[in-house]
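Hi,

I'm pasting everything inline rather than attaching a file, because the server keeps stripping attachments. The sequence lines come first, and each chain or strand is labelled.
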Amino acid sequence: MKRSDLIPVMLLLPVLGFVAVQAMHTRAITATTQAASLAPASRVHKKHSASHTMESAASIGESSDDNSTLDYDVDMKTRDVIDIRRRIQLGENGTYIGEILGERDSALARWPERLTTPVRVWVGSGPEIAGWDPSYPERVRDAFDQWANLGIPVKFTFVRDSTDADVHVSWIDHFDSPISGKTIWARDGKWWIVTANITLALHHNAGELLDSKAVRAIALHEVGHLLGLDHTADTANIMTARVRVRDLSEADRATMKLLYSLPPGSVK
Ligand SMILES: [Zn+2]
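And the predicted assembly:
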């Protein structure tokens, strides 16, 4: 039985490029760390205050379930940082890994290998929300598959029971701030992501209904966060802060593949 720190990170997707409204990018990363048990069958409830947002500070609550990912922990004492830096240098052409390292204080976070034990994803529905489209859960599942099909060592399986899931996707009418999606993930002390939750809005916070292509694009963006990507300035990519494209770019694909060829943690 191991104990590790769980550090939740909240990533917010601001206004989509599909709507005309422009807004400041909002992004919040929690700075709080608390010890939490990862013992099997345990359930930990923690509250963290988000800080470092440009527009507002939000309080988030995070609950994390145990999973079996710690079996893949890297022994941090034997991590060869110089070798990891060399591999980044060799592979960074055509990627935005440098921007991610800049945003994360030179640290990478990712899921451990989950091919034999796929990440369990529960996708909720929101028929009570105005503008709900019954095809949305399938669009979200497709967003997960788009990333997984890149050949990264993470597979997803979609479960009916939310209590059995590593990842939850839920829906709201709109956020109170100018964002359209939000991802909160938690990592352990070795930068392995262990759990994540995505919230998707059906409307921009100014009231416009997001169309189905926009919802899918937001889902692609948020699943990118869930897997460990951060923002890039290039608006040709799905991981730009204000999403303007609807599909993964070559740089999105290359960055994800490079991330999953590297161990997580600091490369300082
Ligand atoms: Zn984002």
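Residues 120 and 165 are 5 Å apart (CA to CA).

If the labels don't parse on your end, tell me and I'll reformat.
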